[in-house]
Amino acid sequence: MKKNSLNRSLLIIALFGVCVGVVVFVLLLFSARTFNIYMRESADGYSDVKAEYSEPGIVEMIDAKKQGDVWVVTFRALKRGETSVSVLFSHKNMEYQDLTDAYHTAMYVTRFGTILQPSELDFNGFHIMCVGFLLLFLFAGVYLFLQYRRRKKLAIFSYETVLNLGLSLLFLLHAMIFFGVDIFCRLRPDEATGRLLFFAMEYAMTAMVLVAFPLVLLLAVSMAISNVWLIRHEGLRKTNLLALFLAVLLTGGVGVCLLAGFVNTQLFAFDPRSVWISSARTVISAVFLYFACVLLATQYCCVIAAHRNPPLQQDYVLILGCAIKKDGSLYPLIKGRADKAIEFYHRQKESTGVAPVLVPSGGQGSDEVMAEGEAVRRYLLSQGIPESDILAETKSANTLENMRFSKALIDARTPNANVIFSTTNYHVFRSGILAGDVGLKTDGIAGKTKWYFWPNAQIREFVGLLVRNWKLHLLMLVLLVVFSLLLSNANSILSFLIS
Fold this sequence. Notes:
Elements: H1 3-31, E1 34-40, E2 46-53, E3 59-67, E4 70-77, E5 81-91, E6 100-109, E7 115-116, H2 126-155, H3 159-187, H4 194-202, H5 204-234, H6 242-260, H7 275-305, E8 316-319, H8 332-352, E9 357-360, H9 372-382, H10 399-413, E10 419-424, H11 428-437, E11 442-447, H12 454-468, H13 470-488, H14 490-498
Parallel strand pairs: 8-9, 8-10, 10-11
Antiparallel strand pairs: 1-4, 2-5, 3-4, 5-6, 6-7
Helix pairs in contact: 1-2, 2-3, 3-7, 5-6, 5-7, 6-7, 6-12, 7-13, 10-11
């Protein structure tokens, strides 16, 4: 994988985020120089509005107008300081002329000339902040999705395709949350107080887990069903429990994330003592959501890779090895790989008149009577493939060595040959990545396997790819967790910046 490409993408997103942040901050400074108070009108209506101040000259009322059944009273900052404000609404009805409805609050004018309502941590411009986050996440999600499409066309066998797709899904989930918050700000500005919106931001990661829950639940249920069928057909073994274990982790992880959403004795009181609770909830949700998105992206990329149709212009077809029976005959899994190669062999020969050379690859395991490559070679001969069209590799011990040793044999006979490999459908994507590691530019074809075997095998592929790229995942997780913690504690950060 070309890490520089992913680094460049993240750098572009970061620069876009900085630009959006600067623009949003400047707009907030101008927007927050005024402050709106919302008062729902009484049944008989109001005839007049006036304001009284404990400290005159700090703020002044500049406008009062009715919008529907709500009065919007606008104040402007005059100088730095704090004052109590009473907004008095006089009734129209003659019977209530001596009565007034009052809205009492405190206003603080910051050193930037902006107005802050301390009791609600409120100021004008939350919709600007929500639009800024929406634009950032939408840009990141769409940009990474386009990068995924580009990488899929140029080199699908790259882990960067998984990360681009997974991170795109993650950012688009963020965009959905802030789109909803922005709509709420616009439709109900009287209820969109700062404290409520900060509360929503604190719970944004947990909310995204809830949004993703149907898809995660569907994946968990399908894996659990397939795993039960696998155990019924092939017996109860540790390796046959992987999909069931992950299904439990997925459903349990959602439960933990949602349960953590209710563990906060200071829900609307942003007390420093509750910061650790908020931070723990955010970290749990962020880690779960990240791995859920990467899992979905990995599954999708594996499915796409398994449906590849390389052109019928190949010089060699590499058959990847796996376990054989004690008598040297082939298990269905490796037989499926050989049969897929034979099918391609005949199709190309009939179409072009030129048959590719088949390269069965695999050494001899400690419990095997012969090398896997030799066992497959004998099977190919039994299926009518001429000896001259077979080049066996019999020393490799794993997929990486399959690729490396087979490439050496092929290069010795035909430099710059066109090569594809044949393996089982769930194994195509990771095999293509390993081929790239040894400098083998190749494509893959997929032999079929039982439907109930696929999810369990896919989990092994997923874990293998995670372990292979653990440093990159650790970096992504650190960045996501840091960002999520900043987002969930935005109330304290923005209060500091604007005060």
